[in-house]
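Let's practice the habit of predicting before peeking. Look at the sequence and jot down your guess about where helices and strands might fall. Then scroll down.
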Amino acid sequence: MAKRKAKRAASRRSGKKKSSRRTRSRPRANAKLPKDAVTLIVLLRAREGQETILEAELRALVGPTRKEEGCLRYDLYRSADTSGALLLQEVWETREAHTEHTHSPHFLRWNARKDALLAGRDATFWRQVV
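Done guessing? Here is the structure:
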């Protein structure tokens, strides 16, 4: 631990910044979004017995979607209170960027499978106020 502290202190003195592994920057949770950005909140409820498969299908969307042009955030949450309930929080630079996402191969695959897995789905677009 002492070696790491010394290394960080030396790095600060030399003015070097820690390099990021990410190729694209993603906004911080409390950062102001671009003017035309939209947030999509999707609440999903699995059919009985399909909970594990639904989560696996949604997990498969995360990686490729985060790499898409215009995707600022794409996060999947599992309910802490309700079994089989999941939430997607998507943030897109524009509504058009989200529309392009719906034409991607991974989304089309999901769209073809979702009816067999879902008991319910509610989706709402939002715009940041402050």
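How did you do? Strands lie at 38-46, 71-78, 85-92, 118-126.
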